[in-house]
Amino acid sequence: MSVDLGRRSSRGQEASSTERLPVARVPEAVPPPPRLPGRRHPRWVALGVLALCLGGLLSWVLYARLADQVTVVAVSRTIYRGELMGRADLRTVSVPQSLAQTSVRAEDLDSLVGRRAGLDLVSGTPVSRLALEAGELPASGRAVVGLKVASGRAPEALLPPGAPVRLVALPAGTADTGAPDELSSKTYVARVVGHAPGADGTSLLVDLDVEAQQAPVIARLGAAERLAVVRDAGR
Predict the structure, then answer these.
(1) Could you tell me the pTM of the whole model?
(2) 61 — phi, psi (to 5°)?
(3) What does the angle CA 13 – CA 18 – CA 21 come to, to the nearest 5 degrees?
(4) What is the DSSP string of 80-127?
(5) pLDDT tens for residues 45-82?
(6) Residue pair 121/78 in contact by the 8 Å Cβ criterion
(7) How far apart are CA 96 and CA 57, in angstroms?
């Protein structure tokens, strides 16, 4: 039996030559060359300087405005003329010094609670001292009269404080005899101070600001239940 040593040795030499082949190395990545700084365009430099100047000017304006602010009292809801002001109706806001001269300062807020507004105060507006001075009731030459109005003789839902109304004198009852009724159909101008439902559940109690000279006649007609309240357009 013969062994083919020549072929086997040649295969061994091929295998050994294959194993001894050098491994190819991958070249490392070469970093890119550093970028040279580009030239700054004069236009962009000018815009940057302008932006810095504008920013400084805006900061100065904001500081000047904040330094000129004063805290005053404002209303948090609309308050009508003659209506009482409660603590929940008042808050504080900051306004320029020029507007604060006629407004009530924040430290006087508690003194406004329970006072009546002499003018209509829109929600968010500062409370003016003029509105407080005009809110003293009754004013000179005026009087406040309380009336009990029967159901159906007053528009209860349209009588907020300060609302302008007319009082219309109704004819005298059939039981009244004597001289002709000179007061029938006469009208009297008034403003609502406030109103509340009567104890009987049907009548309405209304406080009205009227002329002092007309107050006795209006009170007499009210006691006789001869008045009707008419709401007029006034605001």
Answers:
(1) 0.51
(2) -65, -45
(3) 125
(4) -TTPBPPGGGEEEEEEEHHHHTTBPBGGGGGGGTTPBPSS-B-TTPBP
(5) 777 777 877 877 777 666 656 556 788 899 999 888 77
(6) yes
(7) 19
